[in-house]
Amino acid sequence: MQTVISVTKLSKTYASGLKALENINLDIRRGEIFALLGPNGAGKTTLIGIICGIVNPSEGTIRVDGHDIVRDYRASRSLIGLVPQELTTDAFESVWNTVSFSRGLFGKPANPAHIEKVLKDLSLWDKKDSKVMTLSGGMKRRLLIAKALSHEPRILFLDEPTAGVDVTLRQDMWKLVRSLQVAGVTIILTTHYIDEAEEMADRIGVISKGEIILVEEKTELMRKLGKKQLTLHLERALERVPNALSAHRLELAGKGTELIYTYDEQGDRAAIAALLADLAASGVRFKDLQTTQSSLEDIFVTLVSDRK
Ligand SMILES: Nc1ncnc2c1ncn2[C@@H]1O[C@H](COP(=O)(O)OP(=O)(O)O)[C@@H](O)[C@H]1O
Ligand SMILES: [Mg+2]
């Protein structure tokens, strides 16, 4: 797959002496939704700020579609739309002017049809003549997205797009992101919500204390690290796990009425077949069974805590 952004040996030390990023190497693929997942203070906004040319890197290089972001700033920046974490908009301007002006900043010729489409897509069309300060919080957030899309970027950064946002707006946001991906836009979003990364991303990069701990396809991450459990609801309660079953990783739960078998996602099916055969041979009968899989949340907590 084609690389659209490549970050090489990037480090950032702020003037205060704080080391916010340490040797970041990261490739973003064209057309993907990439989630940068990490707790507050991990360095997500700093990384985005550097790629978008708002924050100066201390070391390292970044290329956006082949353009060096320092030497070739205008070319690289014009490919990017940025929806910032903080709400910042000119309160006295109208919605229409705010979005049109944003496009102008990138030196693109006026295109009222595009602005109209963006405002309609974001359900802001009937507010086009309203002053920004009269909008609700949710509308202001959508306005930031409209601004970011005003110059038809091929890459969109969303910095914590759903932090402090209600459930409906959150789902609208996710829908919008998917439709942008379908339209060919590469999406990089940052989040500290694990379920957001799990819901949205094709790939996930976990960042902690300025370092990228891992980058993985979401499904691969789940497969590699996810544990599965098979719960057998027994016909009759057991006092302890029978000796005949001691070879299997079993635990007794539910006052002896449940046997829980834990296995790796990639663990072979033969092991489960053997377990079922041993159960039958030792006369343990079950009336029902169910499997559960650990969520990305469990995986994330394990990863971050393993490094302390
Ligand atoms: N302008 C700045 N000057 C000094 N330190 C900063 C500045 N901006 C961010 N930091 C620090 O850099 C670290 C990473 O911050 P940030 O990139 O905002 O993380 P995140 O977006 O993951 O919450 C934090 O410790 C933060 O306090
Ligand atoms: Mg941030």
Report what the structure shows:
This protein has 308 residues and is an alpha/beta fold. The protein folds into 2 domains: 221 residues, Rossmann fold; 81 residues, 2-Layer Sandwich (Alpha-Beta Plaits). It is built from 10 helices and 14 strands. The strands form 3 sheets. The chain has a 6-stranded mixed sheet, with helices on both faces. The protein has a 4-stranded antiparallel sheet with strand order 2-1-4-5. A hairpin with a 2-residue loop joins strand 9 and strand 10. Helix 3 packs parallel to helix 5. The chain is elongated, with a radius of gyration of 25 Å. Adenosine-5'-diphosphate (ADP) binds next to helix 1.
- Assembly context of the chains: single chain
Q: Are any ligands bound, and if so which?
A: adenosine-5'-diphosphate, magnesium ion
SS elements, strand count? 14
Largest sheet: 6 strands, mixed
Shape: elongated
CATH superfamily of the largest domain: P-loop containing nucleotide triphosphate hydrolases
Helix content range: 25-40%
Q: Can you tell me the CATH topology of the largest domain? A: Rossmann fold
- Kindly report how far apart the N and C termini lie: 35 Å
Strand content: 25-35%
The structure class reads: alpha/beta
Task: Report strand order across the widest sheet.
Answer: 6-7-8-3-9-10
Give the radius of gyration: 25 Å
In DSSP terms (H or I, runs of 4 or more residues), the helix count works out at 10
Element pattern in H and E: EEEHEEHEHHHEHEHEEHEEEHEH
- Please give the CATH class of the largest domain: Alpha Beta
Q: Provide the CATH architecture of the largest domain.
A: 3-Layer(aba) Sandwich
Domain count: the total is: 2
State the low-pLDDT regions, or none: none
